[in-house]
Amino acid sequence: KRHKFWETQPVGQFKDLGDTSLPEGPIEPPTSLSEVKQEPYNLPSPYEWTTCDMVSEEMCNEVYLLLTNNYVEDDENMFRFNYSKEFLRWALRPPGFYRSWHIGVRVKTSKKLVAFITGVPARIRVRDAVVIMAEINFLCVHKKLRSKRLAPVMIKEVTRRVHMENIWQAAYTAGVVLPTPVSTCQYWHRSLNPKKLIDVGFSRLGARMTMSRTIKLYKLPDQTVTPGFRKMEPHDVPAVTRLLRNYLKQFVVAPDFDENDVEHWLLPKEGVIDSYLVESPETHEITDFCSFYTLPSSILGNQNHTTLKAAYSYYNVSTKTPLIQLMNDALIVAKQKDFDVFNALDVMQNDSFLKELKFGPGDGKLHYYLYNYRTKHVLKSSELGLVLL
Ligand SMILES: COc1cccc(CC(=N)NC(=O)c2cccnc2OC2CCNCC2)c1
Known about the structure:
The protein is an alpha+beta fold.
């Protein structure tokens, strides 16, 4: 399939696949800031750029409504991501964020917000090179404005604003294949509320399975089983940072988190991010960590249910507690908090627990991309230590 736009961008091109003579690293050298286009790209005449200040309740609400009605749906158009306002504020205002990277498109006359794209800065290690990148997310064009070629100009504009801050690489994910994935992940789901999942068509009753047999199959204990398993607290930030930095070293691509990043990305926030750790009852050492973020989905066209409450596996570290036991405790806590399903990608060491903990494979894949950075090889998903929101 021809990628008119992507063939013009500094991304791995399909024709280069397998050419291991090309070195790992930036595809194009940085240019001087004076060479970066100073003014915004031109939009089609009815539209204008706007910067979305996510602190403003009104602006945050406009972004929330645009995404709630027009963002990513599953392949069968039965569900649509329904990021909360609190989640969006968390996702878009990490340490060092740029408000100018929260880009909206409005209709000049009505001032209606009809498109959105964002970037946040992140330090990402690729093998032993730490690269400052923009994590690009929430690209959304109103359903009524699709195939007006707005997305390419929005991507060029966020790229221009990233270049203005002297940043030349980016990371993003997509459910579609573009030139060229750095890695491709399979997603998996663990039922927590199988009756609701079957009612809304997320899951199907297994062959030769009754509903009561299915409910029993996914039943979990009421309490976690690991001694010392507790919620993460602010005073745990230094120990969790050490634990996580050491654990992420084993992956080819991973965030280079410092204590500031850990404080923002991993301290629990009600309805946004949950994180737990294991503090050894004997030594009080922090030996293990697990976390998941809250991303509900709207259920499109079901009489009895409007929202699917989904937890998404985030960063997990096991050094003493077996990863399977640690993740089972995460499932138990997610069930206690009334989540319907627990989702995970087959990144990091997730493959080691997915089947045993009764995850089932999802019906799609998530492709990871780097902008203006070539890797020697396409990575196995288990070489990925990066989870995007
Ligand atoms: C259940 O409701 C859905 C609503 C919209 C899309 C999908 C399928 C899908 N595309 N799922 C994922 O991309 C996915 C599955 C497991 C873990 N993380 C995921 O995506 C994350 C990371 C990328 N940005 C979206 C959230 C499901």
